Amino acid sequence: MRKLKKWQLFSIIGASLAVVVGALFFMFLNGGNSSETAAESKPYVQQAKEGSIASSVLLTGNVTANNEQYIYYDSTKGDLDSVLVNVGDQVAAGQALVTYKSAEAQAAYDAAVRAVNKADRQLHDLETNGVTVNTTGDEETDGQSVAQAQRSADSQAADLRDARADAVDNMNKAQAALNALTVTSTADGTVVEVNRDVSKSTTGTTQTLVHVVSNGNLQVKGELSEYNLANLSVGQEVTITSKVYPDKKWTGKISYISNYPKDGQQATAAPAAGSSGTGTASSSKYPYTVDITSEIGELKQGFSVNLEVKNNTQGILVPASSVVADGDKNYVWTLEKGIAKKVEVTLGNADAENQEISSGLTKDSKVITNPTDSLKDGQEVKSYEEAN
Do residues 372 and 41 make contact, with C-beta atoms less than 8 angstroms apart? Predict the structure, then answer.
């Protein structure tokens, strides 16, 4: 037997140890990966549910009165006579707020009244006294004279009645013109603005005399983008928040969405390629109104508020992780009696957690929430875990 040198012996021992350690390390890695792969490949199954996708539509608007009245100075009515209210006054529907004075309107009314009175006097005199007939003593001749006089009296009476009717019409019109000199409140409300210092401006500038806001519920008014116009509808519920009171919320409902851009504006298209146009793309804005349905509380007119629109649409929801895209189609793996099935679906809206399925599934479908590339249509799945 040949005796090994010391350095040769150490080399053999080192090599053996390296082999053993390497083998153990390899087994450890394989064992760990096998467990991890098995855990990852274990299907999790969850039943589809019916519900709504959380809306991500956010709007801004301003709190306004649901009914308000502006009274502007109108020089065509005459000279301003008096503003009968002050800021802060509570007014009732029909209460006089502003009066004008017009000599022409008063004169027209007085003349119409005199015409009516004159027609009344003449008609009364004719009906009371009739007409005078000179008799001759000849019965036949006198009879003819009386008949002719009666016809004349009837004709005069008819003319007087027509004249009186015309005079009454003129009097009513003149009275309406006088009534128009007094401007009244259209609803119960609060006076929030009064301006007595106005002039007969020739520039067409609108001058507010009185501004009244109703005491009813408030509204929120704002503008929608053309994208939001296509995704919102009247009747949807909203949650309202204000920076002034960040810890408070109000509820409301969309009551109006205009189908026409604000002030008739139109979007300006960008110039076509190669053209010399300088147009720029812009988005049209569409007015909307939200009725506030909760208690007003600290909310005040004029506040700027944020609105989150709630989605009222109910649909079939599955976890977003269960949807598999394949080209331009989308699929969900379902589990029916232990058999995996690949089902083509049509997608709706989605949020961070859920995907709405427009077609392809029912609320009773069980879907695999963690499908893998190794799944095959018709494959038997013996071991899976139900997820809540």
Answer: yes
The span from the CA of 186 to the CA of 328, in Å, is: 59
CB distance 329 to 301 below 8 Å: no
Give residue limits of the domains in the chain: 44-53+313-386, 69-99+186-215, 103-180
Main-chain dihedrals φ then ψ at residue 314, nearest 5 degrees: -95, 135
Q: 44-47 and 385-386: which strand pairing?
A: parallel
For residues 309-326, average pLDDT: 86
| SS3 category, 105 | helix
Rounded CA-CA distance 2/249 in Å is 94
Cα angle at 312 between 308 and 318, to 5 degrees? Answer: 100
What's the pLDDT tens digit per position in 58-95?
899 999 888 889 999 998 888 999 999 999 999 999 99
CATH architecture of structural domain 44-53+313-386: Beta Barrel (2.40)
pLDDT in tens, 343-369: 999 988 887 788 989 899 988 899 999
Residue 80 tokens read as: 């301003």
Beta bridge pairs of residue 182? 99
pTM of the entire predicted model: 0.48
Name 184's bridge partners. Answer: 96
Residues in Cβ contact with 377 at an 8 Å cutoff, skipping those fewer than 6 apart? 340, 341, 342
